[in-house]
Fold each of these.
Amino acid sequence: MKKGLTLSDILVTVLVSVIFAVIYNLWWAVTNTLQPLGLHLDQLMYGMWFSAAVVAYLIIPKMGIALLAEFAAGAGETIMMGRFDIPTIIYALLQGLACEIIFAIFRYKSRALMVAVLAGMAAAIISLPIDWYYGYLNEVATWNLILLISFRIISGAILAGVFPYLLVKALDQTGVTKLFRPASKDDYDAL
């Protein structure tokens, strides 16, 4: 496998990002439905916004893919919203970078479930200081803040870790991802 990104790597990453940009825009309806229920239940759905980076990396495990995927998904989300939203771009860049750091720790060689879960959790954690900067986390009571942080990290682990892993594993079984790397039962057992 070539080390650098090829044109097909970039095109597939952008395609994954466009799909997730659509999902991200639709996902607002899900979180907005849960928000009035209180207790930060909407945070249990927050991890979906970190998924593009993990899915793209699991398909194409190369340096820069996660950052490109999350940035492109965030940019696509702002385009679909009909306005250029700087905070969304900042979130996307930092979330993609957090995922890249996790993948770099494993030297871009592991596609294991635990690596995907750690990447999802890292993206969740990096989103918290941004929320603090934009001013609403510092107004939340301590117990409420702990609940919010816990739910967001759990969501990152499940929706941006377990879900992308299972999705890409299903794609591997259909043969769709064979262009980028072989995936057989032996490959998954080796993880």
Amino acid sequence: MLLKEEIAKVVSGEVEESGEKIQEYSRDTSIFEVKPSLVVCPEDVGDVEKLVAWVSEGNQGNWGNQGGQGSKLSLTARAAGTDMTGGPLTDSILVSFTEHLNHISEIGNDYVIVEPGVYFRDLEKELLAKGLWYPPYPASKDMCAVGGIVNNDSGGEKTLRFGKTHSYVLGMWMVMADGQEHFVEKLTPVQLEEKMAQKDFEGEIYQKTYDLLDKNRDLLAKTHPTVTKNSSGYNVWGVLDEYFDLTQLLTGAQGTLGIMTKVKLRLLPKEKFDKLFVVFINDLKQLPEFTSEVMALSPTSLEITDDNTFKIYLRYAREMASVLGANGVFEFFKLFFPDGMMILQGGIPKIILLAEFEGNVEEVEEGKIRAMEKIVKKYHMRGRYAKEKMDAAKYWKLRRDTFKLLREKVKEVYPTPFIDDLEVHVKDMPDFWPKLRAMLDAAKIMYTISGHLGDGNLHIIPLMNIKDPKEREKIWDLTPKIYDLVLSYRGSISAEHNDGLIRSPYLQHEFGDQLYELFSEIKKIFDPQGIFNPHKKTDATTKWSREHVRTA
């Protein structure tokens, strides 16, 4: 019997083995392409439970190439597919959530319960209508879905002040390897004892995870990342505290420990006023002191975009203006005249910085704008207050849509994210930045750089002809060298995009043998048969990743 026919007997949702959906789900926004054997669109949680149970109970059969990885079947969850790492790609069974598990279940005064297939743009619209918001959204907020946000432990422009996704997860519904949906939340010591006393798979998870982390407290203390953001590996540092919190471990696990079917997220009241100040920076040596003074004003965001990105943006300025509603010649001139004047005064800057301030008292935020004007003058920089909404939107489009712009408009080369999420301490940026650019320039790679200056997180997007084998080889030659540079500054190779196929093979090098072995033990506890999202986190190899780099 064909695998499709066998799976169709298990679930009520659609099961597809060919056609456009297979091709579409062979890719995300990464450099990889992996064709799934099947795409299953579960109709409800019951379908997910049945599917996991069927695979877990040994119903593997001899499927040959139908199952991927020889005869072994696995399950990889997918939401919107905007991942830049290959996280939701598989050659076995892909479980897609945007078709049916796409409901907002409940919106409370300070929380929302939502399914993984809900697009964030739809959730944001509902929340803002109630005066609420979810701050750590990524730049891809108009395209991504909740499942990816949680499973990658995403962050974004507001993370500087409000933190990342793991700080907002109040509870998760997960289908574990036993084929049952379990609710996971922060537990008191008494609640933890009750869980560990259970004589079932869930009880084993709590008992074994607690024992493993408890006996390795010294290792955890020694290896805790020193940068403010890290999505690499498993977040084993956030579990043991006053409470025992497995949501911290599962958030950012990329579906390798189970399949999330619903999540409860903390919300905040939306602040009333936001002000944007734009700075053109030429001297990188000024960054630490300048950033320190700006940070004293408590900005909500402190974002940067480099000169290469700005030049590409200017090439399509008329189109960008039209998208914003500035259609006529006068509107276009009005929108870009201030930028033109700043460029005439000092040329195209090496960095464009966006400093955003939000609050409920407009006079306070306007006071911060006046303080920014003084700081910019002190450092002899060029800067201005983007007072009009369309003016501010223009800069946010430059920052948020960089990757989208590159993918849609730059045809002769392809945006190739493989060093797209580095983080070092802000104080090290003036030393790190020129070394990074020198390595890229030496490899003769065109690239753009944007990111979050406030926490030292850079998004580097090389532009390469990946049809050329010599160009593809540069990926694997350059990656470990740049990671070594990052680690020499005690940084992270992934601050918020996570590991996937591109970074998982380097986790042992990043964290060392002991911690990597602990990660492997975590994987075995939750997924003893290795059915959840293989080739990510602990069972990854550069060989498998290299074999699946797309060539078109």
Amino acid sequence: MATPDATPDGRFEATVERRVEWHDTDAAGHQHHSAVLRWAEQAEAELLRRHGLARLFGRTPRVRHEVDYRARLWFGECVRTRLRVVRLGRASLEYAFTVHGESGLAAEGRVVVAHVPPGASAGTPWPDDVRSALDGAAGAGRR
């Protein structure tokens, strides 16, 4: 289940709810560290689809990510991932995300993506139509 919204400060966000599946866990029985980033990407995909930007898939490689893990999430547990746009750069975009489990905050982090069209060897400025859509999303976080 996904819910995209504009936050009160004008930033766009998406919230995705799911369960921790068997393939999301490690040998200790809790979420594998990489599962949190997949859940953030799931929320990102939902956000882009809902705002007509699905064409960016394959054009926005991750150039930085950081995650602070706060609690373990166990197989079968319901989790809610919230992702929002916090900064729009010339050729990059920064998201912030949180992952909550049944006991509260389990992880929080940030992901920076760059705009790199097929065939390009480096980041290029966002096309005007994409910038217009993202400008409203980034709100005060623009740089």
Amino acid sequence: MNKKMVRGANPYMPLWEHVPDGEPRVFTYNGETRIYLFGSHDTKKTDYCGPDYVVWSAPVDDPTNWTCHGVCYTASDGGDLYAPDVVQKGDTFYMYAAENRGSSIMLVTSKCPWGPYENPVKTELGFDPGILVDDDGRVYAFWGFCECHAAELNDDMATIKKETIRNHIIGHSKPFWIKEDDGHVIPTDGFFEASSPRKINGKYVLVYSKRYEYPKPELGVLGSCNGFLSYKWSDSPLGDYQMGGDISFNGGEIITGPDGNGIMTYQWGNNHGSLMKVKDQWYIFYHRQTGCNEYSRQAMVEPVDIALDKNGRIYIGKIKYENGEPVGSDVVDCTSQGFNLNGLDAFSLISAGYTCHMYDGKGEPMYQGNAEGTNEGVRVAHVQPVYEGDSSPVVDIQSGATIGFKYIQFGETGATKATIRGDFPQGFTVKIRIDTYDGEVVAAKAAETDASELAVDLSKAITGKHAVYFEFTTEDDDKRAVFDLFTFD
């Protein structure tokens, strides 16, 4: 099949790459303006992160075309590097490298955005540092785990101005391991980790990972959960931060269950990222889990809307309007399309690893990508992590499951045939549905013998942009299918 693999989808880096905790930056270097992504590097496979950082970038004119610049920094102590941040001041790029699993923040510098970053200097910052260079050149740092602190930095970019320290600048969550309320706990909107300050439309916006300590049934959250990226805002960098809202949730497409509550269709896990404007569009950068744990995370992105109301409050996410005025915001959809805002090209090869929906068909939510590995060996559909090659399969697909993609672009001419590849045991039937997971069936094909490829005519030509779902059924509940990739003609 002489077709190219789709690129710049979600995840937007190649499926063999695993760069979570991404801090996006737009830098102009040597006359070229590009998006740069700085994150940790999940290379250990059985634990978080690894001993090096890599840099990826894409031109702002084509954010689907990512280039790897290689390793930019290796831990000076040989240990694991957690989430970094990078800012530019003058002609120097400053990286805050989180050595020793985030407990020792080292400042390293370079004259080039992709490094190498050198000359480590110990800073006075803590876990998950996030840095803001303000319009007047003053620099502010935010950091913390289960409590958020902030301060202005001195000119050395490493030490803090002690008189500016704001401890507990926003309220925090109270996970089970924190035994007492210190007076700063906000169970409904609590900071967990992943500080990332931005200045947007004159407002200071703090993006962070929130931990809900109570159910949020409309999103399928039945207990504590830290899969959210949320925000608060202020009129000054170290000022009083006001309630914002949730921007993204890495639990996949949320569908409505039989009881009216939401059901997440992708395994949630920890989350980390930020906001960045690319040309005229704002995006939220975040990460997802693969496999059955949190050790093979991947960089994701979704477009967001941003608006100010007449009182100066900023709204970010999927914004609600009344009479043209913003009045609220919700999390944006979790999709497969990434920077392909018109949808993924139906006539390219599309890896099943771009799925944003894996539903078992039985009304049960997807499990969390559990860091303790308690889901290892559980036979439930999941994206299998890969570390080479162009495709990442969905494995352990049981009868009744749907694997979905938002969105696919069929164009004006449309498609009349579909081909899917994987491992389909004899007796499995694959149905193709459009628009919703229980929507119109436009094709069905049974595997009459064990098959690695199924080709089927569509019942009608499909044109335009649609969500597409593949439903798998068999009479043998012990059988499992593997879904590798698909395309249309």
